[in-house]
Amino acid sequence: MKKLGIIALALFIQNVSAQTNRFVYQVTMKPDAENKTDIKTENAYLDISPEKSVFYSENRIKRDSVMQKAFQGGGGRGSINRDQMESLRTNINYSVEKDKKNQKMFFKDRIGRDIYSYEEDRPMNWKIASETRKIGEYKVQKAETDFGGRKWTAWFTTDLPYQDGPYKFGGLPGLIVKVEDDKGEYSFDLMKNYKIAEFPTLNQFGNTLKVKRTDYLKQQQKFKSDPMSFMNQSAGGISAPMRVGGGGRGPGGGNQNPADMRKRMEERVREEAKKNSNPIELQ
């Protein structure tokens, strides 16, 4: 009987330790280089298990849920509430996955039709200071690093048993509670945490293409320069023209003038590029 009690306790502890912990960060951004008064704020999740962690936008998972319900209901895209989807727009279109076992980090982002994934190839070298303070309920310690063309200051805590943080940040002897760049253009602040049953499935329409980081940056620039030509090319450079009629994906379906379609897409991409002209990584 005593042995059964010990086994039950061991299984309970194992089950608790295997649970996924969600840390909710408030992300504050100034993504428009020409308009620093345009401040964007949204929440992002850092889900951590013993094997991996994933950082992604809260709005992304909410948008996925809205779309899934619409398709399950048989209504398709036409039944999706556009105002609701607009309210769930996000500036965090990427996700970052850290493989704990193999000590690898993967960044995923959509360019055109497909998801591009690369393994982060730059180490994050921290300089830990002796300075400490209190942020919320946590005692935190200061650390600094240069990464992606910005100087970052982080505050980490050893009160929580995780050596992780939002975005690509991590590698400190504790969880990052706050990290911001010296220009005050990007900051991540821990708001709360709780346990979840498992990692949610992130919808990833299109192909997932594994590339090097430098190739991802090149493809990103190609898309910004000529979005229609980019969309008409597959990953292997084989022409794959977009459908522009016969139940096409544009507003209302039906036949669409290719020239008008190109113009609309180029205008949209230029506008998006302007709104995101001050990215989190400058180099």
UniProtKB/TrEMBL annotation:
Keywords: Signal
Signal peptide boundaries: 1-18
Chain intervals for the UniProt region annotation (Disordered): 237-283
Stored InterPro entries: GLPGLI
Basic and acidic residues: bias regions: 260-275
Bias kind Gly residues: ranges: 244-255
UniProt-recorded name of the protein: GLPGLI family protein
Source species: Chryseobacterium sediminis
